[in-house]
Amino acid sequence: MSQNLIISEETIANKIYFIRNQKVMLDRDLALLYGIETRVLKQAVKRNISRFPEDFMFELSQLEFDNLKSQFVTSSWGGTRKLPSVFTEHGVLMLSSVLNSDKAIQTNIQIMRIFSKVRQMLLDTTDLKIDILQIQKKLENHDKNIELVFSYLDELTDKKENAKPRTKIGYKK
């Protein structure tokens, strides 16, 4: 990396939230990672607003913002006057074309790698869930089959207990 810029994966991963069924990052977190003020990031976005459609960036509703704030035990939000904007993975990628500094480019590369890892982790957990569901179905079938075997055994033992004595054939003494 050009300036030995290393931001830990954990730092970036902790700044990815799941809002409106999308993985997003807050404008203030991105500004912090890029080493710029939030207002500078917002100004750059406003100047290039056509690059940020609704599926790249959107503003949080008051309810979403309140829910997000309630997830933090100690609030470090300060006095924000405007609701924060959040950027999806594509929006973060688009930010690299709007913010031209080397730090922004290197930070973006790291963020994209983390987004990919998060996506892979979600896929891995989905595969695990599918495997678990298949195992549960098999176990349910095994339970039904075992019950069936026991019912057949009960029928056989009932038949054996209620059976008439058989007459023997052959030589008699």
TrEMBL record:
Q: What is the lineage of its organism?
A: Bacteria, Pseudomonadati, Bacteroidota, Flavobacteriia, Flavobacteriales
Question: Please, which domain of life does this record's source organism belong to?
Answer: Bacteria
Q: What is this protein called?
A: ORF6N domain-containing protein
Domain KilA-N DNA-binding, residue spans: 14-98
Query: What InterPro entries does this protein's entry cite?
Result: KilA-N_DNA-bd_domain (IPR018873)
